[in-house]
């Protein structure tokens, strides 16, 4: 799918990656160009690229068929694209129209892992745990909670497996119910992601449309170390065919 965005405020950047997880390609304008540490970059109006952050890896993307890596530029706050290792950006001018696209398969994997992370957090909170950290990278996905001293179940392997079984059942039930996933902006400008009425949290990541889009969601046995509960998990996006 290709969208052309022609009527937006001059100089503004639209976070298209937050508006539509499933948008694969867009025609848009260059709104800024620059260089940092000898590396040229370009920012486009309708930004399709999710930069690394919030525990989620960056999108793999292309500008004019040149592979790029998106990063957030601190001074301006813009998400800018730099050429992937070994490549170089084409010469671009502000106002020029370009085509941007992403590796949609990678995007959907990241969105599935991030959404599943919220779900793991949600079921952990039902046990009275508070999340203190999260990573949503493929092969490394995990949620960490503060371990309550009063939870005796966490003291031995049998108890931990019992708790893990409870978490697995809750996750499976939410996926089977196909709970809708939505986002809204709070008055202070923060973006809040909702798993229906089950859970909500401030988040700037990409997510699936509903929990029924998740498949192969698996939780390994949780580990407790130095007062923290670590729940590792995997997930993928259900085939769209």
From TrEMBL:
Alphabetic keyword roster: Hydrolase, Metal-binding, Zinc
Keyword Metal-binding set for record: yes
One of the record's GO molecular function terms: hydrolase activity
Keyword Nuclease: no
InterPro entries: Alanyl-tRNA_Editing_Enzymes, Thr/Ala-tRNA-synth_IIc_edit, Transl_B-barrel_sf
The protein's name: Metal-dependent hydrolase
């Amino acid at each position: 799918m290709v969208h052309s965005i022609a009527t937006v405020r001059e100089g503004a950047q639209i976070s298209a990656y937050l508006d539509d997880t499933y948008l694969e390609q867009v025609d848009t304008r260059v709104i800024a160009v620059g260089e940092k540490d000898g590396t040229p970059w370009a920012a486009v109006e309708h930004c399709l690229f999710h930069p690394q952050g919030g525990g989620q890896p960056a999108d793999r993307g292309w500008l004019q068929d040149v592979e790029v890596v998106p990063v957030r530029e601190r001074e301006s706050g813009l998400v800018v694209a730099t050429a992937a290792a070994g490549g170089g950006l084409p010469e671009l001018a502000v106002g020029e129209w370009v085509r941007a696209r992403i590796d949609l398969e990678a995007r959907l994997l990241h969105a599935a892992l991030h959404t599943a992370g919220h779900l793991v957090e949600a079921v952990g909170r039902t046990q009275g745990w508070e999340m203190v950290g999260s990573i949503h990278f493929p092969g490394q996905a995990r949620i960490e909670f503060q371990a309550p001293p009063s939870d005796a179940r966490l003291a031995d392997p049998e108890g931990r497996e019992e708790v893990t079984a409870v978490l697995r059942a809750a996750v499976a039930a939410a996926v089977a119910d196909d709970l809708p996933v939505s986002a809204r902006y709070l008055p202070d400008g923060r973006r809040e992601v909702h798993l229906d009425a089950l859970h909500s949290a401030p988040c700037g990541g990409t997510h699936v449309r509903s929990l029924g889009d998740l498949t192969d969601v698996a939780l390994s046995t949780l580990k407790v170390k130095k007062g923290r509960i670590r729940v590792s998990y995997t997930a993928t996006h259900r085939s769209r065919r």
